[in-house]
Amino acid sequence: MGAPDTPSPPQPLEEQWPRIRATIDDATSILVCLDFDGTLAPIVEDPDDATPTERNQEAVMTLADTPGVTTAVVSGRALLDVRERINGPSIYAGNHGLELARDGDISIHSVAREHAACIERLCAVLEVALASVPNCRVENKRLTGTVHFRAVPSAAVPTVRRITHDVVDSVGGDALEISPGKQILEIGPDLAWGKGDAVEVIAADEPSETAVIYVGDDVTDESAFRTVEPDGLGIRVGSDEPSTASARVESPADVADFLSWLGSTGVDLLE
């Protein structure tokens, strides 16, 4: 697996149906990996209010109960958080794959574990430093931290970015890095690990003739798209900006349509 290095605008999903059918037809099983926010659940102003749409929850449950299909949620949320928000998947990856729950066990990346105390200090300092910015929220996810500025007045966003970078440099030095997302700044250990690595680990336990599908909506999902493409299928949710995903849908409602098709018709294409 491995997508081309140069991203291009993904095609609408309906233009990819022949390839999707062919990919599943050549497989003996399917691994469906799903982001949560913006994919199964609509983006909301307060992350605590995020819930999967009813149709997405139903579709995930159906796939989870379907022979030959393995379901996984791969999220930037903390593992405990995302497990409480969506039922059905047999595998959960939290904190962009730094923690992985499967087969009754939870594994945590050793480097992330070592930096957990630093993340704790960082989030505490950021909460004080950003306290005067209206509607700015700092989320401590134990292994990573997130600064949310979706509800921050646009004039104050540059201040949020500047303060966050200054604090990360001061508290974390070279040990931490900042990654951009949709109106968020993600802060975590400076190591070459992301959602794509988690998907690769999950896929390694599946049969060799497995069709791997990944659906996500954000910059942090690009590493997963690169992992599954071109042998599998990456589906970008939202805009048609360049991506290593080959297909695109508009919204979580379209994700539900695809997952429902997969659970009712797509699985019948398996060898």
TrEMBL record:
The keyword Hydrolase applies. Pathway: Glycan biosynthesis; trehalose biosynthesis. GO terms for biological process: trehalose biosynthetic process. InterPro entries: HAD-like_sf, HAD-SF_hydro_IIB, HAD_sf, OTSB-like, Trehalose_PPase. It catalyses: alpha,alpha-trehalose 6-phosphate + H2O = alpha,alpha-trehalose + phosphate. Signal peptide: none annotated. It is an enzyme of class 3 (hydrolase). It comes from the Archaea. Its cofactor is Mg(2+). One of its GO terms (molecular function) is metal ion binding. PANTHER family: TREHALOSE 6-PHOSPHATE PHOSPHATASE. NCBIfam families: HAD-SF-IIB, T6PP. Belongs to the trehalose phosphatase family. This is Trehalose 6-phosphate phosphatase.
